[in-house]
Amino acid sequence: MTSVWRRKCHRVQRSLYETSNLDRGSSNRKKKIEEFSRSSREKLVQSKNKMFSKFTSILQHAVEALAPSLPLQEDFVYHWKAITHYYIETSDDKAPVTDTNIPSHLEQMLDILTQEEAERESGETGPCMEYLLHHKILETLYTLGKADCPPGMKQQVLTFYTKLLAHIRQPLLPHINVHRPVQKLIRLCGEVLAAPTENEEIQFLCIVCAKLKQDPYLVNFFLENKSKRPEIKSPVATESALSPDTGQSLAEEQADHQDEPQAAAAVSTSSPTSNNNSNNYNLVTSLLNLTKSPDGRIVVKACEGLMLLVSLPEPAAAKCLTENTELCELLTDRLVSFYKALPQSMDPLDIETVESVNWGLDVYNLKEDAAVFTGKRALISFLSWLDYCDQLIKEAQKSAAAVMAKAVRERFFVSVMEPQLMQTSEVGILTSTALLNRIIRQVTSEALLQEMVYFLLGEEREPETSATIAQNPLRHRLIEHCDHLSDEISIMTLRLFEQLIQKPNQHILHNLVLRSLEERNYLENKPQEEREPLENGQPHDAVDLEEDPLFGDDLSPERKLSGSDWLSTSPPQSPDHSKSEGKTEVHKIVNSFLCLVPDEAKSSYHVEGTGYDTYLRDAHRQFRDYCGICQRWDWRGNPKPFEKCNLDIPFFEGHFLKVLFDRMGRILDQPYDVNLQVTAVLSKLSLLPHPHLHEYLLDPYINLAPGCRSLFSVIVRVVGDLMLRIHRIPDFTPKLLLVRKRLLGLEPEGITIDHMTLLEGVIVLEEFCKELAAIAFVKYHAAASSSP
């Protein structure tokens, strides 16, 4: 009995315990169920709204498909009023615009406008477009977009503006009710970096730029006067603020009516000559803001938009662009920051050989770039932005290009590069000179090249004297670097000048060389009666090349070319031209250069493919290219007549030629690479089609004034020194031939050869003389074929 009772008691206790636990658990579950039901109801409401929106859109399309089509204007007005009624009737302004029918109505309005234009004759405005313009629909959309009500409306408005300007062929921007809201919308672009509407903003700005490129005069509508009163701000999305008919805010509509006469007057008086210094160029400002976007695609698009704007020919826009925007600051500041990001020391070969860079197109991989050489990514970024600056200035209106180029000179070249080039650290000099060489090679715009040349060489044009060579410190330092103790610095600086003299800029050649040769005072200036009697056409104390043992008639066939020999390797022979106006017969000049190096110092005739004719083809091509560059400089013709020359001025060859001649005089004692670069620069100068330069560098028979030297006289002295040194070197000719074959890769490197520097110098000297002979021949025939 007791055991039964005890079991019953235990069962009751267990059930009571379980019931109490169940009560506690059920209260927790009840709370969770309430929270779940609440969120479910919210999601269900949102889902219903979306489904209703989609259903309404589908039903609308079905009705349009089945019902008879309304006239386009009625349909257009219906869609617009559907948008305005949304703002009047709705009370939920937090729902995103994608949950409403607004995007669909805007798309329908665009389709109607496009269809209307397609159905009408070109240039005719239809009733729907008239309605859009008269009721200032774009103004209203701008107001809604500015308020971003409902959320995402700004994106929809930008898209609508972009498609409207892109799809409608008739000019819309001249209408005040188009260009005014467009200008207001431009001010909203670029306000916030990395904004969700950045893509739509840049698309809108670019289509405006494209329209201005088609009709540049319209840019005057976008130069906003700073003194214009601030825009009236009006409440948005309230029933009392919107006109039921147009949807435009009533306060703004009234303000627009007050402004219409003033705006119309502004349009009628706008002209290319309206240069107001207090103008804002908001289109440029917005694009400049978007160039700071973290999205590279946005940056490239913004740069493209700026490229279109700077090319507009309107003087007022060009002036406003350079004076009232930060475009120059953007170009130079970014160029400086990219340059300062470069490593302090870089291999000149890496700088010279890095692939060509076009702005906006450089695709890179950081790991791969770092594996090639340190600083490659930074170098590509710098060169890419330099290319953009160069192209922008190249495309810009002339006055704007000049201002931008001067800004680059002052803010980048003078402030940043000049201290780098003037430093004393050899590593720093080498790196900065290599970078400058790459910059010179890359710059193509005329205005930027001009400013860069003025930075490097100065603007002086009067003849140089030995006392004025240091007048421009940077020019003096760069020319001195051509003869630096460091062979690497000498070679790199010589390459820089080689690159520079090939640029299509007359001031470069005038400043470096021609101003010293203008008066031809390198020639003997004694009157004819006071001169020594001539023997065989030369003074008795002059070196007669025909009788000199080095250049006599007993020359071997390999050393002297007959007329038929050197003509057979040239362009078609022209009629014989006798010496006229001081010109020496070309075959004498050619043979003079070919016979300068004595037989025992020649090695080219032992190796195939190293003859004189190989230089003729290169000389012909290079001279043709130079003539194309110099054609507009009016260099062709005879030298300046003696009677017009001031021959009493003491002759100074100029700092640049002095250093080159000094280097040339040491060709037997300099490294092979230095000699190659010195002769490369001199051959480029010899190719120039200027009569004085041709006479001074390529005519061996000119009668030099006392104390003067020419290129030929320098080489003659080198050959004289060579003749004395040849006999001191045993087995000179076999060693010379072996060195030539090694340089050509025909022989492997073996034992060290004594006097290697001298032997390499002799080979360079022989090749240089053949090159000068070819240049003289090509230039003579070009002059003969062009003369009447």
From TrEMBL:
<comment type="similarity">
    <text>Belongs to the FHIP family.</text>
</comment>
<feature type="compositionally biased region" description="Polar residues">
    <location>
        <begin position="240"/>
        <end position="251"/>
    </location>
</feature>
<dbReference type="Pfam" id="PF19311">
    <property type="entry name" value="KELAA"/>
</dbReference>
<feature type="region of interest" description="Disordered">
    <location>
        <begin position="526"/>
        <end position="583"/>
    </location>
</feature>
<dbReference type="InterPro" id="IPR045669">
    <property type="entry name" value="FHIP_C"/>
</dbReference>
<dbReference type="Pfam" id="PF10257">
    <property type="entry name" value="RAI16-like"/>
</dbReference>
<dbReference type="Pfam" id="PF19314">
    <property type="entry name" value="DUF5917"/>
</dbReference>
<feature type="domain" description="FHF complex subunit HOOK-interacting protein C-terminal">
    <location>
        <begin position="653"/>
        <end position="745"/>
    </location>
</feature>
<feature type="compositionally biased region" description="Low complexity">
    <location>
        <begin position="268"/>
        <end position="278"/>
    </location>
</feature>
<dbReference type="InterPro" id="IPR019384">
    <property type="entry name" value="FHIP"/>
</dbReference>
<dbReference type="InterPro" id="IPR045668">
    <property type="entry name" value="FHIP_KELAA_motif"/>
</dbReference>
<feature type="region of interest" description="Disordered">
    <location>
        <begin position="233"/>
        <end position="278"/>
    </location>
</feature>
<protein>
    <recommendedName>
        <fullName>FHF complex subunit HOOK-interacting protein C-terminal domain-containing protein</fullName>
    </recommendedName>
</protein>
